[in-house]
Amino acid sequence: MHAQRIHHYRAACHRGFSLVEIMVGMVVGLVVAIIIYQVVSTNEALKRTTTAGADIQQNGMFSLSTIERDVRAAGWGMPTADVMPCARYFSYYDDGSGSGAVPDFTGAPVRIVDGGSAPGASDGIVVLWGSSVRANVRNPLLQTVTAVPNGDPAKLYPVSAVGQSTVGGFAWLTDDRNDCALVRITASVANPASPDTVILSHDPVAGTASQANYNPPDGAMGALAWPAVFDTNPRIHDAGALMQRSYRVANGSLMAQDRFSNGALVQVASHVVGLKARYGISDAGSQVVTQWVSATLGPAGNWALPTPADAKRIKAIRLAVVVRSPLRERPDPATGTCNITSTAPATWPDGPAIDLSSDPDWRCYRYRSFETVVPLRNVLWANLS
To answer: Is the pLDDT of residue 260 over 90?
Structure first.
């Protein structure tokens, strides 16, 4: 009897799981796995959204601060009080593949290029400044200046060596006719007739992609209607190294181009879909901004091509950059369409919206606007009115 009990005990100890127990265990394990997957999936989605939000913040702040920094520098190293009132501006460049007037060049510290209101359109901003700390030194010339750059008649004889560009630097030629021409100094030698002065040359040279020519030959001067002479109180202003940087949005990126550097179009930031800007203008004789206008021809005036008098009224720039998340959100499961963004992003309160309808998937992304107002301090300091 004792042996029989031992046999049953051993048989019970060696019994495995039943099929029901195995099935219950599998169901419990599957439920746990599904819960873990859902938690991981939700966490990963939140991680992607958070990372995309950080990318928006980084691209937007960097884009805005980069443009703002250059706009604040606009007009530095420029003879603003002398150049801004100019009725006509003359410039030239030849990079070996093409030649003509410098694109988007007006002599103004800041120029807005209106992009219109078509889907996907954005404005452009062109900023101009120089490196010279002596730009506002008016240095009269001893002679009437011929506009033909070749030969001795085109040499520049300033009455003082103070404030003159070194070789390779830019200089403005101005006179009382309100003509302003930009030239590049190609040589500087001592003036034997006046030991304290120099003789400056601005001869044309062969332009290349790495070193453009900014002094027009005879034929180009005629084609661009340059003035024949500067004969009414001609003077020269040092600009040093000149920078004309333009910003625009292209193919979903903020792009920049330095016209007086290598001229290459470079990417500043990605996932930028919109750039809008307005002029802050004052009343004549004032330094206080009273209204904001687009760079267009409208009831407030022709701000696409402002007159010299109107250009002096531009005291600030309002700009906005609209950035898109790099993460494409999933469509709504109920409708199969994207609805993460339902309305076009606005630039600033009561400002224009960015029309993104040229992209059929624009509702699948998140957007954020970054905007600021930048006073043109070098214009304000010049006390133009």
So the answer is: no
